Give the backbone structure.
Amino acid sequence: MPDRVQIKHILQTSESWSGTPLPGFSSGKTEFKILLFTIKPGGKTTIHVHPLNGAGYMISGELTMFSTEDPHGSFENPKQVKKATFKRGEAWAESVNIWHYGENQGKVDAEFVLMFAGQVDIPPTFRLLSKPHLPVKTKSFLPNFCIVISATLVKSLRLRYPNLLRRF
């Protein structure tokens, strides 16, 4: 009789897709968030940062991710920018405390799931208040789980959550 349960190992890593090490977990009450995204062709997310560990899985289409080493979220210097494209069936660990955005450069909808493991009351995403230079202008959307942040607010967040946003 053939096996009725199949398990496929999709991802095991201690580094994000952009090559940065993933931070350890903070103390506090653990909370998981699982989000389903659909980005139309030509659409892109806002520039944002995740203070939580997360992983993504592509259901359909493709998603091109861009990250920057610039602490203010600027993508002007190509030497500071990393790029990776994920296609159907591929998985990745999200960049933590690194400014980045995702863009659907394909011809069909990009559908993917993001899973975040963190602490209760800490949102999985912070978005830049002002828009640094982006290399390509396309439609942008802000998911309702994001909160808007400016670079000047980072200091107060670091005081309240010392293990978050360590890079800034």
Notes: The helical segments are 154-160.
